[in-house]
Amino acid sequence: MNYDVSKENVSTLSIAFDSCKEVPLDIDFTLPDYCPDIQKILKCSVKPHITSRNISGGQISIEGNAEIKIIYIDSSSPQIRSCENSAMFSASLDMKNNPENALAFTSAKTEYINCRAVSPRKIDLHGALSVCARVFEKNNTEISSSVNGQDIEQKISKVPLSNLIGMGGQQFTVSETLEVGENKPSPEMIINSEVVFLSGEPKIMANKVVVKGDLIVKILYVSDIDTGTIEKVEYEIPISQIVDVSGISDECECITKIEILEHKIQIPNDSENNQNLLSVDIKCGATVFAFCPKEINLVTDVYSRKYETQNTYMPLSTQQILKNFSETLSIQDSVELPNTEIKEVINIAASVSNVKTSLSDEKISVKGVLKLDILGINYDDTPFYSERTIDFEKNLSETLIGENIQFETEITPTDIKLSSQGGNKINFSADLDTNIIAYITNTINMVTEVEADESSTPQNSDSPSVTVYFANQGESIWNIARKYRSSVNSIKEENNISSDVLQESQMILVPTK
Hints:
It contains two helices and 21 strands. It is mainly beta. Strands 8, 9, 10 and 11 form a four-stranded antiparallel sheet that branches. Strands 1-6-5 form a three-stranded antiparallel sheet, with no helix packed on it. A three-stranded antiparallel sheet has the order 2-3-4, with no helix packed on it. The longest helix has 8 residues, at 477-484.
């Protein structure tokens, strides 16, 4: 005989796939006519951008474009110049299955790059990209909330979790024509650019989420080709994008993510009448996960007071989001550039890697490696480029209490400022926009089926009896009741016990009937 098990549906988020594939990048190209000859390469960078991704038949196909930027010294004068090229790349990653209700995050980064000028006009470039995919899947799981039967005793655990209501994604493009400003000279050549996103507070509407934030655009350009004068401009572009998420309500917690898929900064060809313009096109991807807090009743053990039972168990993995917050961390430090006498620092760009988040004594701390890309001029008026790394560790103002807490952390440098320079030393400050999701993952065995052995000897329901049991400190009342096919409540009442676990060794009376 099988007992009836009442079921309830919960939705959870799982990682269906998480892997990377290395893609070689081997190209050579000749500088276009408008770029002067190369005396020395200062920096060769490759920024890969994902242009499309598709999940089909257990395979995720990714295509992208690698933007190649060469910053170098002009052979005819010691001026900084820049030249661009691009190369297409693709990768296919095999998954074990074809997930339904899935969203994919894809990314690509440069693992290493070697480039050299084989002639004043020809570049030879070799390197490798890591193309990565992380696929999230919505799982609808039946849980056992109760077992029905007059002779049944069941152990119910109350489990808090974050119930996944829905998820959605939307790609969009931000196109702007920006003025350089009255106090800045007109751009003649773009040297470098970067775009980062600072998230704002999302707004929940009927079955929709408005993702808000600011795109920070930083542009380094040459204002006079003859003198090589370099200028910097920075813009803040507010964005607001609607993403459809069915079933979302005000009680839900939203986790939003904006990916910068690709960006192009150009000097408009039709800007003869106004030379102080820059054309900006930024392709973005917005993703939203909506969770609502929920507490479920989960049957973790069952027995019959009448028959021997055979239980079937299944592990259930749940996640509970504890905190989702942002904080700006500030770093003040210095770096030295050996064999360099710094006359001027033109630009400092930064990135963060090897991020780890930990919890100790209720304090959340993050540590990582801050990489600085420094472009400047020596006292002999020769341009230089240098890379420096700094280890950092910072405590956050937010606190948490608990164990086995996991963290998802993203850190984006937003504001790098030069505080002073002298000799070969640079003092700087950096603001790091830090986004953290703190959560707990629990795996609990739940009862899915209960089968009674009707051939076993039933308890005599007509003859009440009491068994004397000598219990040890720390024993569970449930385990004692299960052993003798009694009930937890009757043992507690008979012995005037209030707790579920015995606080001391003692003799107890176990009623059976």
